Structures are given as structure tokens and as C-alpha cells.
Amino acid sequence: MNRTILHLDLDTFFVSVERLLDSRLEGQPLLVGGISDRGVVAACSYETRAFGIHSGMPMKLAKELCQDAKVIKGDAATYTRYSEAVTELIRENVPLFEKSSIDEFYADLSGMDRFFGTYRYASELRQKIIRETGLPISFGLSVNKVVSKVATNEAKPNNQIRIAFGREKPFLAPLSIRKLPMIGDKTYLTLRNLGIKQVRTLQEMPGEMLYRVLGRNGLTIWERANGIDKTPVIPFSERKSISTERTFDRDTIDVHRLRSLLTAMTENLAFQLRKGEKLTACISVKIRYSDFQTYSKQMKIPYTSADHILIPRILELFHRLYNRRLLVRLIGVKFSHLVHGNYQINLFEDTEETIRLYQAMDKIRLRYGDRSITRAAAMGVKTIGRMTNPFNGQPPTILAHRKQ
């Protein structure tokens, strides 16, 4: 039985949500992302792309390229809500799906042709999503994830395309090598220096040649150029770590501010662990200085999810890592080696009052929000809280404007 893989992608998702909320934005050049000089573009409308603007570009440069563009900071909670609405529609209508990002999905429709045409079924699903959410969405349908993803990008905006079985190579052949997943700027330059411009050239080359040039990734690129991809649709993968980090609008040496931010980060991540019934056995701190040099230190600890254990250890790592002679650009905290489990009372350190305090604080946070109650040391910190459960198998919402 041939596989049938559907790839769905919400077109310019953040921009589309903003236009759904305010119809006056239709047709206007829009940029969503960080509004400071250090912000980056999280999403851009098709009207801005004619100026060379793309996601991930510095917002300062994007505003210079398209001075008429309207800049919107955006709202993660709103985008998450619309993403979840689309997710529920897909969950209700397909047997197996994978959510690979906040606006991107794969579904395995293999075998459904026995009952009805998969292309017709995918078309009806797309129309249902458009009708019930008001959001434009495109899809590609083929025998594997790679070809379907490329097909979706060719179908945009707000359209659909099917690549029939056996037509994968002819479909990919005339496309630019940039359109293949895994080919970033460095790989693109390497291939262009070899005179390779179109996917057709990759198809005609022996795989061993690409292996000699690019190593193991070269073989993967050769397979994808030939429409070969056996990657399965994965509905859920257990999360192995949880982290958060912040980039400062201005580099700082304010130790009090850094300590407060680390405290708030650790407190929030610890709450997320307890909410997800997880424990961590490895913690780390990351610092990026003004010269973009990045350093990190980690420490193994007994399994825990308790603030009063984690915060002192995080601050200890910070003081071992921090170089007072340099300004700090970014700081982050990460918990890894996660396992399922609830926090257990430490017979030598904890009291019944401590456990009751955690339970009461978490109850307040669950009802009124992550930052509804916090330590005094973290009160001056901007929002750290999350809008989604980090352990529900869905990817996080990544927004460029979440800065300090």
C-alpha cells in the first residue's frame, strides 16, 4: 500500500489572525514581531515580501526596506487559541496527525482511498478549516512528508496541490535547490559553488558525490531531491527538556536585574514541571555576552521540582559563569533529564507547611495565571509565563518580541 501524507500550513498565520481580528488590515503590508531595534520579524504579509522581507529578518532592516509597513507586536495567547481551534478540527477528522509547529501539520491518510478519495477528503477538510476559523490554509498531498511540504509551499497562498504517485521526481526537478528542506544558507552556497542551481542537477548526481561534499547530510539531501523520504508521521514525542531565555533590549551588567530574572524563570519552569507531573535531574544556565560569545554551565541534582531547591542552584551556576567585565545580552535557564513523577517530601529539609505552600501557590496560578503569585525577588520582571502546557506533545509558540 502506498503512503498518503498530507501537509497543511496556515498561510502567514500571525498576519492572518491579526487581519481576522481587524479587517482594516486587509491588503496592507504587515510585520509581526519584535518592535525594538533588536526585534526580529516573526511573520510578514505577502505584500512585504516583494521588498525582500522574510521571517527571521531584523525588524530594523525590515522597516527600512518597507517603510509603509505596519508593525504589530502580536499576542501569543491569541495565536495559540486559533492554533488550538485548527488542531481540534484536524484531530476530529484524520486518523493520525503530527503538529510540527504552531501553524503546520502532517496527517497520514494511508489506506483511506479504500473508502473515499484522499484528495477529495483533504479538500473538504481544508474548506472546513477555512469555513469554521476564517483562516487561509494550504496543503500538499503526496507519498511522503518532504514532497508534501514542498508541494504546500508551491500551492501557497491559500491553495492546494496533489503530487500523484510516481511523479515526485518530475515535480521537484525544475525547482530551486533552496526549496528543499535541510538546505540553509551555508549548504546553498556550497552547492551553488559546485554549479548546482536546480533540484534536477542533484537528481542526476551520484549520492556518493554529495556524501563526500556534505557528509551524511549530503545523502539525505540527495534522497529528498529524488523524492525519497521514509520519515513517519509522529503524533507525540515525550519532551526531554524545558527551557526559557530572554534577550535584553540593551546589554546590561545589572546583577540585581539578572538575579531577579533568573529567579522568575526558575520559579515559572518549576511550576510547569509540577503542573506536568515532571521532575528534573539536570539544570543549566546560559549567558550570551555583548560580543555574542555564549557560555553555559550545568549541574546534576537529585530529582526535584521544588523552587526552594532549584532557585539557589541556578543562582549558584550563574555566579560561577558570570564574567563581571562584560555586558550581558541574553540569559536563559534549562531543565533536562525529565522524568514523570510528583515532588516527594525531603524528610531532612522539608516541612508539611512547605508542601502545603506549594500546593496553595500552584492552585492560585492555575486559576489566575502563572504570574498571579511570585516571590518578591522576581516581582520586577516582565511576563515569563506560558500560554500552553509544555508537556502536551505540541510545539511551543515562538515569538520574536518576547524580550526584556
Write the layout of secondary structure elements.
Layout: E1 5-10, H1 13-21, E2 30-33, E3 41-44, H2 46-49, H3 59-65, E4 70-72, H4 76-93, E5 97-101, E6 104-108, H5 118-133, E7 137-142, H6 145-155, E8 160-162, H7 168-172, H8 185-193, H9 199-204, H10 207-214, H11 216-225, E9 241-252, H12 255-275, E10 278-289, E11 294-304, H13 307-321, E12 328-336, E13 339-340, H14 352-368
Parallel strand pairs: 2-4, 7-8
Antiparallel strand pairs: 1-6, 1-7, 2-3, 5-6, 9-12, 10-11, 10-12, 10-13
Architecture overview:
Helices cover 39% and strands 20% of the residues. The protein has helices at residues 13-21, 46-49, 59-65, 76-93, 118-133, 145-155, 168-172, 185-193, 199-204, 207-214, 216-225, 255-275, 307-321, 352-368; strands at residues 5-10, 30-33, 41-44, 70-72, 97-101, 104-108, 137-142, 160-162, 241-252, 278-289, 294-304, 328-336, 339-340. Mean pLDDT is 85; it is low at 344-350 and 397-404. The N and C termini lie far apart (52 Å). Strands 5-6-1-7-8 form a 5-stranded mixed sheet. Strands 9, 10, 11, 12 and 13 form a 5-stranded antiparallel sheet that branches. It is an alpha+beta fold and 404 residues long. The protein is built from 14 helices and 13 strands. The longest helix has 21 residues, at 255-275.
Q: What's the number of extended β-strand segments?
A: 13
The class by helix and strand makeup works out as: alpha+beta
Shape: globular
- For the termini, the CA-CA separation is 52 Å
**Helix content range of the residues, please?**
25-40%
How would you state the average pLDDT, rounded?
Answer: 85
Task: Output the number of helix runs.
Answer: 14
Q: SSE order in H/E notation?
A: EHEEHHEHEEHEHEHHHHHEHEEHEEH
Placed side by side, the strands forming the largest sheet appear as: 5-6-1-7-8
Q: How many whole angstroms does the radius of gyration measure?
A: 24 Å
Low-confidence stretches: 344-350, 397-404
Strand content: 15-25%
Largest sheet: 5 strands, mixed
